[in-house]
Every structure is written in C-alpha cells, then in structure tokens.
C-alpha cells in the first residue's frame, strides 16, 4: 500500500553499498548473490526495523507480513517448508550491523527443528545422529540467547550424559544419547522459563529475530561500541538464511579464508579448513584445522570453485577479502565475505600490489592506508615475550620497544649513556629538567601521570618509547629502586623492557627489531635496491604520491640541530615551532636565575649578555640544518617556576641553615624571589609575551641572537629564513609592543652586518581572546600559528598538566568525549575558534600565512580539519612528519 515501508530485502535485492540499511553482512551477501556466487538463499531485515523495535519495544506492524512473504520466496527457492515434518527447511538467524562488531551480538542456527521435523531431517540426511545433534544445538543456542538461560546448565547436562557413557567426547554420543540430551535440555527450558521450548517453527524464528535486535543493547555490545566509537543508535540488521551443513560427513566441511595473507600482504590465498564440521567448531578451536591448500586433495572440484570465487571477489571488491564458506556434500556455499582486516604493513603492501595489478590507481592506494598505520610501522618492535618476567602494565603513552638498565635520575641516565650503556629512565613523574635524561634513555617509565603528562608529551615528541602511570610500581628514586606488585625489587642497573604500544613492563631483556620504515626515512635503506623489502618500496611509492597531491605544507617542531636534520630527512619543509625554553635549562639555568634576581639594569644586562652568544650558537646550527627552509623561532614561553628552584625544597634548605645559624645571603635572596614569583596556576601566569613585557631586554636579546645567527649564516653563503613568533598573545597591543622592539633590533643588526636579513614577525593564536580578535591582530602579524595545546586548555578550562590523572578517565568512560581533546582537536569548540581566527585574520590580511604547531598538527583526524579550514601548513614532531604528509594527502583526495 502507499507509504508502507520496506523492512525486509531479499538477498537478490541489495548491494554492497547498502551497509547502513542492510548491515555489513547483509550487504555483502546481497552483493555475492548478484554476482552469481553460490550463496544460500535468504533475506535481510533492515537496521531501520531494529531501530523501530528499540524505540517502540515492538516490531513495526508490517514486519510480520513482509517476513512471511520473503519466507515464502525462500521456501520456493529451496523446495522445502520451514520446519516441515517430512523434509524441513532450517534457517540461521544472524546479526549483522553496519560496523563490524565481532562476536558482540547473537546468532541462532537450525531454527525450524522440533519433535516432528527432527525425524524428517533424520530421514532426509540419512543420519539420525546428525538430526538429533542439530536439534540439541538449537535448544542450547536458543535457550541461551533467546530465553536468557545460563549456558552452563546445558553444558552440565551434556557433561552428565557423557559421564554416564564414560566418555569426554561429543563424537562418542550416538543418536539415542543425543535424544536423551534433547529431553534434558527441554526440561531445563521448562524449569527455567515456566514454559516449553516452542515447537512452532515460525514462533522460533520470530523470537530469534527479536533476540538479535535485543542483543544490540547487551552489556558487551554497549561497551564495545563505546570503545570503538560506534554510534549507539545505529541498530543491527538480521539475516535469515537457509542452513547448509558442513557436518554431514567426510564430503562436507567448513572453512575461513583470505584472498591474500593479511599479516604480510603476500599474494596467494591463505586459510583453514575443517572437515565434517560446522562454523562454530572452527571458531571454538575444538578440533585441529588443516591449511586451505589441503582441500585440493580432499575435494578438488570444490577447491577449484573456491579459488575462482575468491579471485572473482578480489577483483570485484578491488581489495583483500575474507570469507567463510561451507561445503555440503561436495557443494560449495559462500556464507560471508567482507573487505578483510590486515596489519599495518600488509595495508601498504597490498595497496601498491593492487595498483600494479591495475585494480586501483595511486590516489586510491593513498586512501587505502592511514597515518595511524604508518605510525605503527615506525616503532621498533618486541619480537616475542621470551622468558622475561612481566612486572606490570601501565599506560601506553608513546609506542615503541625499549630495553635498558633502570636508572632513576636524569643525571645518571646521561652519565650511563656516555659510558655506552642503554638505559631506561624510571621516575615517579618527569619535569622539564629531565629532558637530557629522556634524550639519553632508550625509554621512559613513570608511575604517575597520564597520556598528556610531561613525560608522555615529550616522549611522543621525540619518538621515544614511554610507559606512564604504572601506578602499581613503587618508585623510590632516593634508594634507586622500584618495587613491583609481586614484591620484585628492581635496582639501578637491572635490565628492564618496556612496550610503549601496550604499556607492559618486564624484568629482563625482550628481543627487539628496528623499524625498516624508519631506516628507509633515515636514508639507510634504498627503496630502489634489488633486495629492498616490499614494505619499504610500498611506503616509498605511497608517500611520493602523497607529496604530489597534498595542499598542506608539513613542518616540524624541533629545537635541536639533530632533530631538525632528522625531520628534514623525514620530509619536513621547515620548522613551524622552535621552542627556546630548553635552551635555558641545564648549565644555563644559573644565568636565568641571575636574570630573574637582577637588581638594576646592569646586573640584568650582564645576565643577558652572557646568554646571548649561547642562544646565537643554538640558532646558527638550526639554520644550517634547515638551510633554505623557514625556521619559526618562538620567543621564550614556559612558566617561570620551571627555571626556579622548588619553593618547598628551598624553604627547607633555608630553615635548616638558619637552625644551624649560617643561612647565606644568596640563598635568602633566592627564597624571597621565588616566594614573590610563586603562582598557584603558573600555566595562566607570567609566561610568553607577558614575560617578555615584564623582563626588559629578554626578548630583544633573543631577537638579536636570531638576527646575528642569520647574518653570520648568510655571510657564510647560507640561506637562513628566520621567522619570529610571539607566544601567548591575547591582545594586539601586546604584540605591537614586542614587534616594535624586535624590528628595531633587526634593523640594528642588519646595519651593523651590512646584510639584509629579513624575518617575518608573527604570533601564536593560543589564547581564546586572540582567536576572537584575529582581525585586529592580523595587521600586526605576518603569520599566525595556532597553539592548539594552550587553546584547548583555555577553551575547556582544563589544566594541561593535571587533567589526565584527575578526571579524564571518568569523562572517557561516560562518553563525554571519545578521545582526549588534547590528542585530537575538538572541532566544535576549539575548532570553531580556529575557524573564527582564520576568517578574521584573512579578512584583515589576505596574504596572512597560517599554520598550527600544537600536538594536533600530527594527529590524523585533526590534519583533515586543518586542511578543510584552509591552513597553509601543519607542524609536528619529527616522527609525525611522514604521518602528516600522508594524512594531508588523504585530506586532499
Ligand atoms: C601550544 O600551546 O599549542 C604550543 C604549541 O605551545 P606549547 O605547547 O609550547 O605551550
Ligand atoms: Mg602554548
């Protein structure tokens, strides 16, 4: 009638493009049916019907009639009637959502069997045992999934019968024993439900369909969806399909197969076969399967048909497919196919193989791989667990595999590394002073802090393995040891292994292999060499194509010559953020202390004069490494307290000294200054441009060092391209003040050297007010770079340093966000501010250069956003550079 909705589709009516409506399984069964492949007939009840059911608590009124109609078509195709006493049609009722949710929802097989039709099945199949076994399987599955009976009750009853027969094997039970099992199962149903197992085949089918709908909201499905970020209101489709049997004898069987090796991508089919068995037997691993190749000897014609079918599927889907099939009395049936999951390495290899086979083009190859897969390929890997003892599992903060001797301070890490020892730095938590130790160590292990803790962020930036928040470990840095939950004490010098991809920590050495992809990026492996491996060759081809199609530039965040050079090898087109703060730590910290404590201009100038040549040298080396490419130097930004001694520690020191009657003048002065500068939330305190405005001469000194370094570089025949970036600006007036001062310094240096060193002057946009007033700021800035770390912090009001440990896990659990906004850009909020600033900035200054240098610059999803809003470039840590190149291309396609 008019307006009546279609809730049911025959397999011959759908296609693979209807996943949302028919679910993945239904859409692919339809596709195979229309390809003329041997799929048992059946129909699909749509996800729409499921959503209706979940909303109304009952099925749509038209559903029953539509099911009847499609069931009739199915019965005609099979020449049998559902549950017929003489020759029953049996069906399977299976779930199948649009997104793959393996094993999360329900399936009921052998629907249509009852006390009468079991006799008919026995006659038709010629096997009483088979018929009674099928019947007991139905009651067991139906009882558990449809009627909600505890599955163990059935298992116990089955075990009892086996025990009475003195066996442990199902196969030793004959038809009579299985009929006895059926009697006991039916008694369990009656006792548990207060009603008999339904004998009406259609009632069985309808109940099974509703049970599949209900299983959408089972606990495990809900948890799985939350973790995989699958929408909770999508619903599942239900596939009703004629049963075929792989357990009718030695001429029957069942198997799973891939059209290529999903582990390596190697060509050639790959799979397992199990003779005289049904699908669940393979999954349950009850009996041993044989390699698919053995099927050729068992059943040559079925094997050949299977091979043809698989090659047909691959060229049709133009991708690796995985399949499930059954052979019933030498006849092949296809039960399922889908584009198969694969490892990261296989994804790259298969993509270029398909290009070479003419099935896809290079654009499509770039779409077929992801930045996350590339990132996975760049980490060294543990080969296997070996016999090392696992101590605990923390948070997987920065992937990779690190083995080394445990050390408990940054100084020790540096000293041991100098002696040629591989070390793992173990700390309760890290702070900026640990940087040198982190650089020296193979990896970092902390017992506190989450994935945005200092250790995690810095480690990811360096591509250094890090496990953080391993709370079960008691780290005692004073005694240089930690204690594992089982009481094992690990002392300085003991070898440990940490896996930054899983968070696992072992005592002892787990063997590691380096990443061939990184060796290729480093220039150590030639992709064109005869013996180059397939993976390296594929990565090379795909990234070369990515560079041709992307619009976004890719720069790096680097503040050492070594990182700059490496990023350049990895494809960076300049530096988007050179943080100058670490240039003030270590030995230079005393100079900074002097600067802060300076009384009067002379003392201050002396401190600045001492710092300037050191700064100049830093910049010189970086300009050389990035010769011909832009280098954005950010003037000093960190909160002041990072340069000053800890207040509590200093107070204690003074108190002790006073008690002994010899507190010295210098320490007392330091204490007074530290007290005066102490801030309860230093992230919102005296940092960035505020510091530049409050400490006279500081920014001018940095600008002079930049200009002097650039001049020298130029005089030596180089091509330095400095850009000066002012952090934490919220109002154009702040920028203006620093800008004037900087321009003056630049002019002075140019004049004294007689060279024309141009430097763009721009600002970070990382305070919400700056984003909102971008049109006022742009006339004073030649470029904007979005500092999305601070912008996220200030937009959400989340402290970058504390939030993970404090409450992020609760937010993630409750689904307030699926991923931390510090990891992946919050498009609606922070992203909105970025859009406003892009629009305002470009309106006021059309040629304004726009980039981003927060952590998000290397996050795949965020890269797509930055492409869409029209930034000129993203900047990220050296190890993320290839990832950003790839994702920028995927965003452009
Ligand atoms: C930012 O805030 O996004 C940024 C890049 O600066 P930092 O992380 O150094 O504060
Ligand atoms: Mg910042």
* End-to-end distance: 44 Å
Question: In what range is the share of β-strand residues?
Answer: 15-25%
Overall strand count? 33
Strand order of the largest sheet: 14-24-23-16-17-18-19-15
Which structural class do you get from the secondary structure elements? Answer: alpha/beta
Any ligands, ions or cofactors bound here, and which?
A: phosphoenolpyruvate, magnesium ion
How many separate helices? 35
Helix content: 40-55%
**Sheet having the most strands:** 8 strands, mixed
| Mean pLDDT across residues | 92
The CATH top-level class label of the largest domain? Alpha Beta
CATH architecture of the largest domain: Alpha-Beta Barrel
Q: Could you give me the name of the CATH homologous superfamily of the largest domain?
A: Phosphoenolpyruvate-binding domains
Count of all domains:
5
Global outline: elongated
Unreliable stretches: none
CATH topology of the largest domain: TIM Barrel
Rg, Cα atoms, Å: 34 Å
Overall description:
The chain has five domains: about 10-240, Dna Ligase, domain 1 (2-Layer Sandwich); about 255-340, D-amino Acid Aminotransferase, Chain A, domain 1 (2-Layer Sandwich); about 380-515, Glucose Oxidase, domain 1 (3-Layer(bba) Sandwich); about 550-640 and about 680-890, TIM Barrel (Alpha-Beta Barrel); about 645-680, no CATH class. The chain contains 35 helices and 33 strands. With about 900 residues, it is of the alpha/beta class. About 45% of the residues lie in helices and about 15% in strands. The protein starts with 7 loop residues before the first strand and ends with a helix. About 50% of the residues are buried. The strands form seven sheets. Strands 14-24-23-16-17-18-19-15 form an eight-stranded mixed sheet. The chain has an eight-stranded parallel β-barrel with strand order 26-27-28-29-30-31-32-33, surrounded by six helices. Strands 1-2-7-5-6 form a five-stranded antiparallel sheet. Phosphoenolpyruvate (PEP) binds near residues 787 and 790.
